[in-house]
Fold non-specific serine/threonine protein kinase.
Amino acid sequence: LFDSTRTLGVAATQIRDLDASTMSQSVRGKGGSTIHDANVDSDLSSTLTSGAIATTTGRVDEYQLHSVIGSGKFSTVWKGVHLPSGKTVAVKKVQIYEIMDAKQRSDCVNEVKLLQSLCHPNVIQYADAFVENNELIITLDYCDCGDLSSLIKERGTAGVPLSEGDIWSIFSQLVGAVTHMHSHRVMHRDIKPGNVFLTADGVVKLGDLGLSRYFSSKTAVAKSMVGTPYYMSPECIRGQPYEWSSDVWSLGCLLYELAALRNPFFRDGLNYYTLGKLITSCEYDPLPGCFSDELKQLIAAMLQQDPGKRPSLRDIGVYAERCRLRCREITENEPPGK
């Protein structure tokens, strides 16, 4: 999947345009509802509260920790082995007593339980979660090819772009992951290459599922402005409530970055204020001409200021899958050695 020595262009006439009426649909909830801090329906939240994650002693000894594969101010991620099963896992330790008050800890634990119910091939599985030694410990799927941020950096340094076929393949899997999350009333809030993980067999998995507002509570600019600034939507930059389509904006930024090998709003020497102006005015450089009109049009549709004008995840998924299949068909029909 990630062998991308060629850039594949697809002519605009080769893939039908997505119907304009469906491309303009919002991914808001019913009646234009927005999602706020809870991220969980009230009846589901009360159900989870009654079955909190256990505080244990000695359970962490079931995991043999090897190397550190990621870290933040209040968390560390290890590559490890679950000794009873022999399975390689990622083990995330979060100092929840350092960064959260009692209510935040309760909310975070409840949401981890919700995330454990997510089951999708493109979503990092939360296999186990418990509190021990004043730390929240979460065990996750381990992905053996690192994250998308490293791949993009590697390709950018080498000057070797991803093929358009690979771009559509990666992106289609991510859209499937976010669609699954939204169907369970969970918003991701921090979609970026560093939270996208890769496996040797070409599977793409979305991680850090909706917990960024808890784990960054001491450093966030404001409670509603959680996430990585380069991938924040205009409404989030303005401090407005999150909408379902804020995740669509972040996916649009990521799709652009897969092609350009840099974020659409990256500039040297950029400060937060100037970045906010670029995002709220939707100012970004056009993609190189080698990429298809379909790719450029989808990015433009997703990176719209008005959340209500962004396409729905369903329509994005249909469009991206059609483009992926068309790219594969063109590649398979190319003469040998081309």
